[in-house]
Amino acid sequence: MRILIADDHDLLRDTLVLFLENEGGIETDAVGTFDDAVTKINAGPAFDLILLDYNMPGMNGLDGLRTAMTLGDGQRVALISGEATKKIAEDALEAGAAGFVPKSLPAKSLVNAVKFMAMGEQYAPLDFMTATQDTVENPLATKLTDREQQVLKGLTEGKSNKEIARDLDIQEPTVKLHMKTLYRKVGAANRTQAALIAREAGLF
């Protein structure tokens, strides 16, 4: 099974590759822009599934999805996103996408979704498509302060300390202090491990 992952966040992309290849029987390729994805698709041989990040450079949202679906012999293409709305997911499925995968999906569910779509089925998580405002708090989230969660979210998105500091309007040394505390609380030794733990827990 050959999977192409196109996402501009290095850490998230590497994490997805790690999870999928650990399953065995899955060969992955990964790129950071839509143009690079097109190059890979055209180079052949065909992928069983292509995962496109909704907001990466060159993607242009659903236009990129539609373009990718016309390449080669007609590729199976799914959207992956941490920000897309239910409406975007519905539009993607209506356009013929193989599925819609929220980045908040727990690791095991993500792997199962990829396998499901690669075998020809259409996937979208029922809880996402039918979600209301009544959400159950994640157990991992209860261990962290709001600021620590914001920093951890930045880590899972592959952002540097400087980028996280800028986004949260705080100083970079403050980000490092929050990281040290959240590492201890979640049982992580480094930023990659913290991101993996957060994804396993379905926090983001």
Describe the protein.
The protein has 204 residues and is of the alpha/beta class. It has two domains: 2-129, Response regulator (Rossmann fold); 141-200, Arc Repressor Mutant, subunit A. It has ten helices and five strands, in the order E-H-E-H-E-H-E-H-E-H-H-H-H-H-H. Strands 2-1-3-4-5 form a five-stranded parallel sheet, with helices on both faces. Helix 3 links the parallel strand 3 (49-53) and strand 4. The radius of gyration is 17 Å and the shape is globular.
What are the main properties of this structure?
single chain, 204 residues, alpha/beta, Rossmann fold, 2 domains, 5-stranded parallel β-sheet, 10 helices
Topology of this structure?
Elements: E1 2-6, H1 10-22, E2 27-31, H2 34-43, E3 49-53, H3 62-70, E4 77-81, H4 86-94, E5 99-102, H5 107-118, H6 126-129, H7 146-156, H8 161-168, H9 172-186, H10 191-200
Parallel strand pairs: 1-2, 1-3, 3-4, 4-5
Helix pairs in contact: 7-8, 7-9, 7-10, 8-9, 9-10
